[in-house]
Write a structure and sequence with these properties.
Blueprint (H helix, E strand, L loop, with lengths): L1 H7 L6 H26 L4 H23 L1 H14 L2 H13 L4 H11 L3 H13 L4 H11 L3 H16 L3 H55 L6 H25 L6
């Protein structure tokens, strides 16, 4: 499936070249990480021996992590398409109901929508080169990274084959896509409450009360609370807040109504 994933991700590479590139990148990243750890832990004799066992583990983790790059790009493209899918689908329906031919409607979509327009431009370019509309749509369905856009293209193909009204056929697909996106928004709204509670506890309550209690306890147990420890705590809290913001941003559905 790697060849298909590379095509869907927009990466014009052969699977063999991509694996070779990933292997070399993982080797360089592992080498850099191991050198950094060796310099930090140079004085700890015990950990020097352990590092020889850690190196292959780190390399394998890096390799398979970087091997997931096409899937990450596919996910990103799918989110970008989801932000335009409803507007593009309604645009096609309006164009077709106005008497505009399917080819011209696709050309207009490619000019008015930045993300989805790229896929429709590929279809119209293939038609201009002599490929039939049905064959061009079939090729696009295989490599489109979004299930919603794939549903629209499949509906257009079925309408061409059966000779039915394309605009009316697209109505049901667009209704289903709209309902799915509304469900995603509702699901996202429900997950915000526990996330907000987690943020209040970890990023607001624990830092203020925790540092205060730590200062008080350090005076009783004669523990020296140095500036380095406080800076380390501040960096840790900053990292936690960054991870929280990234998690909320990542889980947010890319939908605009």
């Amino acid at each position: 499936m790697l060849r298909l994933k590379l095509k869907q991700a927009g990466m014009e590479e052969k699977p063999e070249d991509f694996i070779k590139k990933t292997f070399i990148s993982a080797f360089y990243m592992t080498t850099g990480l191991v050198v950094a750890l060796f310099l930090v832990l140079a004085k700890l004799e015990v950990l020097k021996g352990i590092m020889f066992f850690i190196i292959p583990v780190v390399f394998v983790i890096m390799f398979f992590y970087m091997l997931k790059l096409p899937e990450l790009r596919i996910s990103k493209k799918e989110k970008e398409i989801s932000g335009e899918i409803i507007f593009a689908g309604r645009f096609i329906i309006i164009e077709l109901e106005s008497g505009v031919p399917l080819y011209n409607a696709m050309v207009n979509v490619s000019k008015n929508f930045r993300i989805i327009g790229q896929y429709f431009k590929e279809i119209t370019d293939k038609v201009d080169l002599g490929t039939s509309m049905e064959d061009a749509l079939n090729e696009a369905v295989e490599f489109v990274p979004s299930n919603d856009l794939r549903k629209i293209l499949w509906q257009i193909i079925n309408s061409i084959r059966t000779g039915s009204n394309i605009a009316k056929s697209l109505y049901s697909v667009m209704d289903q896509v709209t309902k799915d996106q509304v469900n995603e928004v509702n699901k996202y709204g429900k997950t915000l409450n526990p996330l907000a509670m987690f943020y209040m506890i970890v990023a607001v309550i624990l830092p203020s009360l925790g540092v205060t209690m730590l200062i008080i306890l350090s005076s009783f147990i004669k523990f020296q609370l140095s500036l380095t420890i406080l800076i380390a705590l501040a960096c840790f809290l900053g990292f936690v807040q960054f991870m929280f913001i990234s998690m909320v941003k990542f889980s947010r559905p890319p939908i605009e109504f």
